[in-house]
Amino acid sequence: MMRWQYALGATLLLSLCSFRMNGADSSSEMRLYRWVDDNGMVHYADRIPPTQVNQGHTTLNPEGIRTEVVPPAPTAEDLKRAAELERQQAENARRAEEERVANQALLKRFRSLEDLILAREGRVAAVDAINQTTRDNLRLLQRRLRELHQQQASRKPTDSSLPATLQADIVRVEEQIRTAYTTIVTQEFQKVAIRAEFDQLQTRYVALKNNAQPNATLLPPPATEVLASNIVRCFGAENCQRDWERARAYVRALPDIREEINGAGLLMVMQQDDDEDRLLTLVWIQQPADTAVYLYLNLECKNRLTASLLCTNAGALTARDGFRAALMSAN
User: Residues near 153 by Cβ (< 8 Å), separated by ≥ 6?
Assistant: First the structure.
């Protein structure tokens, strides 16, 4: 069949050549069409069957020279691919323009690398200022909770049951303390995110200053959460309850404990020596929309002579900073 079709094509070519040699008008020259059907068969003819119009074809003149190439009509899949390619090109162009504008804004915003570092430290300091206000309020709440527990402890065995107002006050203040610590931990994570953001800006800024194109693939991903050594994260009620009990045992095993307050999701122990008073607070933190639970161990100190709030006791600092490592080693 294939041989017959090629023979037919050759015959038609010879006929066209003969037709031209016999003086036919060039405006009415015969044309020969070549196309390939769905089965890969090559066809030659002086007209294209209607069923083959969309297959694409090549037009040959009487000398057998190709004069026109008509590509196949695009299929639905071809049109879909073309539309997707056009969309991707438009998206790439949009991103490139956004990056160009962002780079210009970055260079305009910071005149030097020192300006960028100062801006980062300013953002962190603003969070620290909010955090300090929270901690100042927290000290008042802790003092109030100690007073309430002292009232509770001062009651005689012959006294009636604990007044409802006193119990309600204890529950309310404990909840306020847990909320304050939730704010503090959230703000600590915010500081981590700020530093990660500026790490990316610094990498891009240095590349632009060196007239180099920043390579986005080399930039570190933005960090949204990095756990400090005094925070433990857990998932699941059973796992978290187990970790909570281990955390409470860890805190209660510390030396020089003079007083303890044990509440719902809260444990406060007071230490005291010749130099300073120390308060270690273990708190259970869980946001309503978060599946994770954070166990946070906080350390606060006050020098008995200078009233400085800087912690200097090596054992207390080691207990705080080794909190997560100790709980993880127990798993």
Answer: none
